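## retry 2 of 3
previous attempt timed out at serialization; input unchanged, resubmitting
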Amino acid sequence: MHPNESRIREFYAAFARRDAEGMARCYHPDIFFSDPVFPRLHGPAAGDMWRMLLSRAADLEVTLDEASADDEGGRACWTARYTFSRTGRKVVNRVEAMFAFRDGLIARHYDRFPFWRWAAQALGPTGKLLGWFALLKWKVRRQAAESLERFRERSADDPAHY
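## retry succeeded, writing output
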């Protein structure tokens, strides 16, 4: 197995264990992460996003469905099953991920999933009806960014929080 594929598998094994620190250790210090809800996270913010999400994940199940990598980069398909904390609705999110590596660590991580499908599950009828519109995506992104900012502020005030 290529070492980069090993790193991807290590990342998702930590994710499945709800081990945010293990996930963060797979990231390069200059990590760039982006997905439809958390676009353009740099450096420690990417690890903090996983810390925040896992701290709320009462019933999260993560499965790595497929992974591959070589010297050029890597990809993975994974599935998350969980209850969306804001609405109490069940979500099954199938995600395609792409990776780039530097110094044996993940330096770029892009997750793709259909926002409309996620919104329909997580937000119910409102998400199903409005999930196609950029306005809802912007609102969800703003709420996610504000949540992450509050989480990071609390964590900075309480180093034992991690």
